[in-house]
Design brief:
With 737 residues, the protein is mostly beta strands. It is built from twelve helices and 37 strands.
Length: 737
Amino acid sequence: MRASTRHIVLTLLAVVLSASALRGQETDAFLDNILISTDRARVMHDPEKARAWSASLYSKVEMDATHMDWLVNSCMFRKSLGFINEYKDTSAFSGEPFLPVMISETRSDFYHSLEPVIDREVIRANRISGADADNVMSQFSGDGVLKANFYRPFIQLFDLDIPSPAAAEGQVFYSFFLRDSTEVNGRNTYRIHFLPKKDISAPLFEGQIWIDAEDFAITYVHARLAESSNVNWIRYLVLDIQNRKLPDGTWFYDKEDLYLSFSPTHGKVIKTVNVIGHRQVVFDTPVFGPITDPDALASKNAIEMSAKQDHDDAWWEDARTLPLTTHEAGIYEMVDRVQASTPYKVVYSLADMFSTGYLQNRDWGIGFGPWARTITFNDTEGLRTQLGFRTTKEMSTFFRLSGYAAYGWKDHEFKGRGTAEFMFRRDITRKLKIQYKRDFQQLGQGTGLLKENNIFNSLLAKSSYNKQSMVQSIFAEYQHEFTPSFNSTIMLENRKMWSNPEVPLLKWDNTLDPWFTTNQINLKARFSKDETVSRGVFVKSYVYTRYPVLTISLTGGEWGGDWTNNLFLKPEFMVDWSFPAGPMGSGMLHMDGGLIVGDVPYPILKVHEGNETMFHNRLSFACMDYYEYASDRWLSFFFEHNFNGLLLGRIPLIKQLKLREMVTFRGAWGDISMNNQNGPYQLLPVTGSIGMVPYLEAGVGISNIFKVVRVDWFWRLTHREDQTRNFAFNIGIDLNF
């Protein structure tokens, strides 16, 4: 769906939902004419609608922490951290005393073109207090990630889509008041205040917008996230945007200030640790005309890091558009002193352990973990103990080694994995991965926390993974990124799967094969559009795109060591789409389908994703058991919509909890051909074919409980006669704004 069409649909839906709020209200004709004229003129004044331009910009980001006195002045840390009080200050934004934590400065060039399509920021210089040049944060310290353009229908901040009061759709969400008409820089300017309409819990702004009376261009915006908005973690969000008129009459960006306050609580008075962020961006005079800079034309990344990033203090003195205050200049010195302290090293190591899963020793260049898999338990292995490691970038930025050894105290077997990764390029991924693994695997699982047994799903498991199979895998995988929107991988793999009492390889003469092997090659291509990515030293992470992502996979190979008769081909596709829906919340859609050409053992079939735990998994069927259904041609979908408190946000008292209602709908169709039903091994007694009637289940849930917890209830809509588990209750974690 094109973006313009999507906004029209959302607006019509919002009009219907907001009908009660609109009844009885009349729009002032003069004010209405100003708003309509501004919307019509945005094509002329929106810099993103201009044919081509480039501009240099300087951005500065400061992060501060409030309510840290109890830590700094405690008996344990007073001696080593007491000096921090020298840098203590009071926020002009919130009036709270704070301690500075981080400051970042960036000098970059922004390039925009409609033909060819280019919207690219090249970061020429960047420095972050206490961070090295490879820090991932440097990729998000410019202007390309958080950009507020009020000419657009929706303003995207993090994963929030906030309606713009200056767009035509804005009149659905906001009430407007003309406060003044005054002269600003010699030009007559309208000062218009706006407030959210009642009974809309979607994230909205409140504030004022200044509009030039002659050109109907936006000259200034002061917007604060309304208190009625159902958001998490963000206590305050304030934007101050200034635009200027250039000598040739063109309107362009001038300055942008963003104030943010992150907190686990949202009260007016809080006593917990609170993080305050302040970002300032200043644009130089743009150069209009075709893009000729080779760095901008050669790269395909939305954000490109230039080769040289390190500059001395004298260079930065000349490069700054906004000079550092005495307070800001002291942060660099303070952070260096803090990082040298023992308390910082301990706290940083613990925080790093929970975020990466490894307890890392930077001096040795090695990390130990994953800690969540150190002790687990399941029916197959009983109590399982595991020790693992992973090298860090301090050892090498070219290669990374990792592995683990595990032992089951019930099955008395050793398992393990060894992996070597080689990163040939990071600016555009070129990576080789080689791995050997021998461990139990549960076929037909979803993703996320359920993918591998860990302490969390051990506690929440219903059947404790009693259908696991021992699998030995040796593979080599090469990742090749053609552009940020086109990624590919090729993998060669040898697999060996052993029979066991729960998942036997039972032939039709009732004899058992001890194992069977496969040799296969997999080709995969991933297509996306306008996707924000994060490039770490060894991992490229996909952050966000508002468009669907298509993945096409083709697997071919043989089983049983017979390259003459036992050949198979397995084409598959996947579509993933996370989309904002304005006042209707946000949705998530995953679809996948494929077929298997050739006769194969049942473990090679598509074993549909079951869930025998109480832990919520978006990509598994809550009421389906492991191995319950398998297919050699299939199509499935998983749809979830979060209404962001659209209904619960209207109920007195309950709306104060900021709960969010959710609905889920999942389905699968598939069957097994007669050749594979009568394949080399008998199907498990619990395994069947879905058949002509699709498997369907639906769920309702409540999320944002204590801001992180969600609960869901699922009902099996079809195939209810197959078993008695027609209802499921899941609990999960959601960390959303």
